[in-house]
TrEMBL record:
The keyword 4Fe-4S applies. Residues 1-20 are annotated as: Disordered. This is Endonuclease III. Its EC number is 4.2.99.18. It is an enzyme of class 4 (lyase). Residues 67-214 form the HhH-GPD domain. Belongs to the Nth/MutY family. Pfam families: EndIII_4Fe-2S (PF10576), HHH (PF00633), HhH-GPD (PF00730). InterPro entries: DNA_glycosylase (IPR011257), Endonuclease-III-like_CS2 (IPR004036), Endonuclease3_FeS-loop_motif (IPR003651), HhH-GPD_domain (IPR003265), HhH_base_excis_C (IPR023170), HhH_motif (IPR000445), Nth (IPR005759). It comes from Oryzicola mucosus. [4Fe-4S] cluster binds at residues 216, 223, 226, 232.
C-alpha cells in the first residue's frame, strides 16, 4: 500500500467546500553561528546592560514599568523620582491614594488611568501576596495594569529569569532584520526565545532595546553606528561595515536618552 503524499504547506487544502492555504510562519533567517556572533558583539559593547527606568526595589520597578506604557523612560523617571521618595512599598503607595499619586505622575500620558492601576495593584499585592511582588508570570499578569510584557520585564530584572519582553523596539528589530519575524509581539517573543543562545538570554532583552533605541531606530536605522552591520540581512541597511566594537558606558546611553 502506497503512503499518501505529504501536503505541500503552500498548496490549498480543501476543507469541505472551502480551499484553505496553509503558509509556513516566517522564521529567523540567521544561522546559529551568526546569532551567537550578534549577541557576542552586543555583550562586548554593553557588558552589563541596565534598564533605564529608575527604581529601588521590585515594587518600584513594577510601578515604573506600568507607568512606561506609551511614555518614554526619561519622562517616567522625571515623575517617579519624587513619587518613589514618598512611596516605595505597596503600603505607602496605597496610603498616598489615587489623587496624590496622580499629582506625582500627571506629566505622563494616561496618568489618570495609570494612577488608578497603581493603587489597585498596590492593594492587590497587600491583599494577595503579603505586600511582595510575586515571582510568577500568572500572578503578575493578574495584577491591575500588568500585561505579559510588563511581567516579563519584572521577571527578568527583579528575579533573573530568561524572559523576553517585546516592546516596540524589539518588535521592530525582530521583523526588520529577520531575527524573529512575527505579526504579533507574542510571535516575536517565541522566536527570540527559541533562537537566542541561553548564555545570552539574561541580557538579550536589554541589548535589543538599547540597539533599537540608539541605533536601529524607527524612522531610519543608523547603520554606521551598528556593530552587526556586516551580519545584518535587513533590506533597509545602508552599510556593510560594522562600527568599532568598543564598550559603551551606561552614562553615555543615559546622556543620549536625555538629549532625545
Amino acid at each position: 500500500m502506497k503512503k499518501p503524499k505529504a501536503l505541500d504547506s503552500h498548496k490549498p487544502v480543501t476543507e469541505g467546500k472551502r480551499s484553505v492555504v496553509r503558509r509556513r510562519k516566517p522564521k529567523c533567517i540567521y544561522s546559529q553561528a551568526e546569532i551567537r556572533e550578534i549577541f557576542r558583539r552586543f555583550s562586548v559593547q554593553r557588558p552589563e546592560p541596565k534598564g533605564e527606568l529608575e527604581h529601588v526595589n521590585a515594587f518600584t520597578l513594577l510601578v515604573a514599568v506600568v507607568l512606561s506604557a506609551q511614555a518614554t523612560d526619561a519622562g517616567v523617571n522625571k515623575a517617579t523620582r519624587a513619587l518613589f521618595q514618598a512611596a516605595d512599598t505597596p503600603e505607602k503607595m496605597r496610603d498616598l491614594g489615587e489623587a496624590q499619586v496622580g499629582e506625582y505622575i500627571r506629566t505622563i500620558g494616561l496618568w489618570r488611568n495609570k494612577a488608578k492601576n497603581v493603587i489597585a495593584l498596590s492593594e492587590a499585592l497587600i491583599r494577595d501576596h503579603g505586600g511582595e511582588v510575586p515571582d510568577d508570570r500568572d500572578a503578575l499578569t493578574a495584577l491591575p495594569g500588568v500585561g505579559r510584557k510588563t511581567a516579563n520585564v519584572v521577571l527578568n530584572m527583579a528575579f533573573g529569569h530568561h524572559t523576553m519582553a517585546v516592546d516596540t523596539h524589539i518588535f521592530r528589530i525582530g521583523n526588520r532584520i529577520g531575527l524573529a519575524p512575527g505579526k504579533t509581539p507574542d510571535e516575536v517573543e517565541r522566536e527570540l526565545v527559541r533562537v537566542i543562545p541561553d548564555e545570552y538570554m539574561l541580557h538579550a532583552h536589554h541589548w535589543l532595546i538599547l540597539h533599537g533605541r540608539y541605533v536601529c531606530k524607527a524612522r531610519k536605522p543608523d547603520c554606521p553606528l551598528c556593530v552587526i552591520a556586516d551580519i545584518c540581512k535587513s533590506a533597509e541597511k545602508t552599510s556593510d561595515f560594522p562600527a568599532p566594537l568598543v564598550p559603551i558606558a551606561p552614562l553615555q546611553t543615559a546622556a543620549l536618552d536625555a538629549s532625545q
